[in-house]
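User: I've been trying to design a sequence by hand for this structure and keep getting stuck. Would you show me what you'd pick, starting by listing the structure so we're on the same page?

Assistant: Good idea, let's start from the same input. This is the structure you sent:
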């Protein structure tokens, strides 16, 4: 794996880790009273995100299959590397970039099978709920990177699972780059990925 690939995957991993811990607050104090036996607490089964149009399970999906050769060509990138245990959740990931070209465009996708997209609502980098091919996605930024040059989308594809897509312009050389522009570029790739996931998840 190239140094560029390693840096981009590491940067994306830090985004997932920070989003994962952003919602953690201080430990809860012990309850002062115990619920009555006839009123057991019911488990949380609803999501704060809008209902998804379909359930697209990520189990068994190859992350590098989420962009076709034609779509890579449209984005001006090629497959640069993969990681079968890319974060603390052992999520499988794939990266695409333009092999040192300019501007320095790159995308990383991560198949997060152990956590739903709603966890990203606690991101410390600010969040916005957007739509990606009909699915809700939490849009944010990696907190340890320049927010003007990156965007993170965590797409709500299935119960307890999410598709993490990050655009990163490491060199900061994309014309007029800003967080909004980075997110437009990220959504374009994420739309392709969700469209392909609809086929792969059948």
């Amino acid at each position: 794996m190239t140094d560029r690939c390693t840096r981009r995957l590491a940067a994306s991993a830090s985004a997932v880790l920070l989003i994962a811990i952003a919602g953690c607050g201080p430990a809860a104090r012990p309850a002062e009273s115990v619920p009555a036996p006839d009123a057991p607490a019911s488990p949380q089964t609803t999501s704060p995100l809008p209902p998804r149009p379909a359930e697209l399970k990520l189990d068994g999906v190859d992350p590098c299959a989420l962009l076709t050769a034609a779509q890579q060509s449209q984005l001006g990138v090629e497959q640069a590397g993969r990681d079968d245990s890319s974060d603390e959740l052992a999520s499988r990931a794939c990266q695409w970039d333009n092999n040192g070209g300019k501007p320095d465009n790159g995308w990383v996708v991560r198949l997060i099978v152990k956590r739903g997209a709603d966890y990203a609502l606690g991101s410390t980098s600010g969040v916005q709920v957007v739509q990606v091919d009909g699915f809700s996605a939490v849009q944010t930024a990696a907190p340890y990177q320049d927010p003007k040059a990156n965007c993170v989308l965590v797409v709500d594809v299935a119960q307890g699972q999410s598709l993490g897509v990050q655009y990163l312009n490491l060199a900061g050389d994309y014309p007029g780059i800003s967080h909004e522009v980075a997110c437009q570029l990220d959504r374009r790739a994420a739309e392709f990925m969700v469209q392909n996931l609809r086929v792969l998840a059948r």
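That's my pick for every position. To get oriented when you compare it with your attempt: Residues 148 and 180 are 8 Å apart (CA to CA). The first strand starts at residue 78 and ends at 83.
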